[in-house]
Amino acid sequence: MTPRWTSLAGLLLLGLLSGCASSGVTTFANDVGAIRGYDPVAYHTESKPVKGSRDHTFSYQGATWYFASEANRDLFESDPARYAPAYGGFCAYGMSRGFAVATDPDAWTIVDGQLYLNYSLGVRRTWLKDVPGNIAKADANWLKRSTKS
């Protein structure tokens, strides 16, 4: 298999096995919080993933978000939509294919001020080949997902 098909096959399998696609979950969170405990503001202000601290937390969309500093927490609290990753922190490429899949904090991109996370660096490379098209598809899938009753 080519690397692209391997990434796609792995992503699809993970989506099917995770059960997230139909669970109604709106934010990717695990036992260490939203986006694996990484500070969503730091992607914007430091241009890199930074692990958050238990000393600086905020509850949003049913998940605990961690921040590297009180200042970052305050920025997020004042405008969560500006700093929270697209699609609740699920993989942007996975969402473009209709799956809610976990992400790797190191596989990220900011486009027009919006943070997008991906399942892996390999999936990120695939996602980057058609960012506008993938965002359009992911937006449509996220809208369907978020309006389900």
Describe this structure in words.
By secondary structure, the protein is an alpha+beta fold. The protein contains seven helices and six strands. It has a two-stranded antiparallel sheet. β5 (104-111) and β6 form a beta hairpin. The longest helix has 16 residues, at 3-18. The termini are far apart.
Indicate the radius of gyration in whole angstroms: 15 Å
Order of helices and strands: HEEHEEHHHEEHH
Summed up, the helix count is 7
Shape: globular
Helix content: 40-55%
- Helical/strand content category: alpha+beta
Strand tally: 6
Mean pLDDT: 86
Uncertain spans:
11-24
Taking the sheet with the most strands, its summary is: 2 strands, antiparallel
For the largest beta sheet, what order do the strands appear in spatially? Answer: 1-2
Termini separation:
39 Å
Indicate the multimeric state.
single chain
Beta-strand percentage range = 15-25%
Brief summary of the model shown:
It contains seven helices and six strands, in the order αββαββαααββαα.
